[in-house]
Amino acid sequence: MLDSRIRKRERIRLPLLAVNGVLADYTFVECRIEGPAVVVTPDCQFVDNTFADHPTAFLWPVDTEARPAISGIFILSKCLFEGCLFVNVGFAGPIADIERWRDVLLAPRA
User: Fold this and answer.
1) Mean pLDDT of all residues in the chain?
2) What is d(CA 109, CA 105) in angstroms, rounded to the nearest whole number?
3) What is the Cα–Cα distance from 64 to 22, expressed in whole angstroms?
4) Cα(30)–Cα(32) distance, rounded to whole angstroms?
């Protein structure tokens, strides 16, 4: 029996897969991850993924001192995304984390 928490080469609609706004303990390999969604990913791993939008469009820095809690977003926990394409998915997080993502994504490619 195939583990339903391991998804390969599938179209994944985050709003349909998340339960009560949470998606936990999944592995996604070469999947198309679709929103519309804004997510936080405190303990996920990302390996060789691509994004349909420019980083300035999908990276949402949050001042955690001024706004210690956020509602209305999806929480992705303990997930691995490898070789996936993200479409219409925004990523929210602490300013320093989002700036690191932006630096990596905007760095010139060798």
Assistant:
1) 91
2) 9
3) 20
4) 7
- Please check whether residue 13 is in contact with residue 66, taking contact to mean a CB–CB distance below 8 angstroms: no
Contact 30, 9 (CB under 8 A): yes
Bridge partners, 61 (sequence order) = 93
* Cα separation, 109 vs 50, whole angstroms: 13
Give the integer Cα–Cα distance in Å for 27 and 60.
24
Element (H, E) at 36: strand 32-40
Domain boundaries, the chain: 9-106
The maximal CA–CA distance of the chain, rounded, in angstroms, is 47
Q: How far apart are CA 14 and CA 88, in angstroms?
A: 10
Condensed to tens digits (0 to 9), the pLDDT of residues 41-64 reads 989 999 999 999 988 899 999 998
